[in-house]
Amino acid sequence: MFFRKKPSPRTGLSVEEAAKRTPPGQYLTDKFPVLTYGPTPRFDPETWDFRVWGLVEEQARWTYEQFMELPTVQITADFHCVTTWSRLENRWEGVSIHEIMKHVQLKPEAQFAMFHCDGGYTTNVSLEVLLDDDVLLAYKLDGENIDLAHGWPLRSIVPKRYAWKSAKWLRGIEFMAADKPGFWERNGYHMDGDPWKEERYR
Fold it and tell me: How far apart are CA 110 and CA 178, in angstroms?
């Protein structure tokens, strides 16, 4: 595992602190590589919406304007890519998953969720993972709007899982009774993706 000899000027963490927060098999970087399958979608605020459906009593939908009026929160969280790089101390801003859940009532059989994104990308998470206190639907990183290449106008942030679960260009969440593989999971990635267990591939 690689660590700098001096603390990162961006994070201010010591080598020892950074080591404790870096999962096995990862190296640290201050860069934010762009890793995407397929073309970058275009964003039109007039047609964009965010939906919640599946095993809910009533579906929910927000236009872009309505979504941006939801209460916002900030979290600081680490970001671990399955390709072995980690970027620590990222300041994300957006809408907490718990704010979204105030607007929907799950049916008792709902145990899993699928993120659905522009471009057809999907990825699955358990309900336990989804409802963690640090899960965010983010549109800002380190005080600036997220770049389009990194998922603008919205991406899920699931800090305790590898970064492919933090889906770019997020458009909705589907609640399900049974676990189903998303895009990368169908192509050999782990169904859960815990970086501390190195759950990279199935």
Answer: 8
DSSP string covering 129-156, please? HHTSTT-EEEEEETTEEPPGGGTTT-EE
126: which residues sit within 8 A by CB, 6+ positions away?
Answer: 111, 112, 113, 179, 192
Report, in angstroms and rounded to the nearest whole number, the Rg of the chain calculated over CA atoms: 17
42/169 Cα distance (integer angstroms) = 10
CB 38 within 8 A of CB 67: no
pLDDT tens-digit readout, 149-184 = 999 999 999 999 999 999 999 999 999 999 999 999
Q: Are 202 and 188 in contact (CB under 8 A)?
A: yes
- For residue 2, the model assigns a pLDDT of 46
Phi-psi region of 129 (alpha: psi -120 to 50; beta: other; left: phi over 0): alpha
pLDDT digits (tens, 9 = 90+) for 113-158: 999 999 999 999 999 999 999 999 999 999 999 999 999 999 999 9
User: How many of the other CB atoms lie within 10 Å of CB of 117?
Assistant: 21
Q: Taking CA 37 as the corner, what is the angle to CA 33 and CA 43, rounded to the nearest 5 degrees?
A: 85
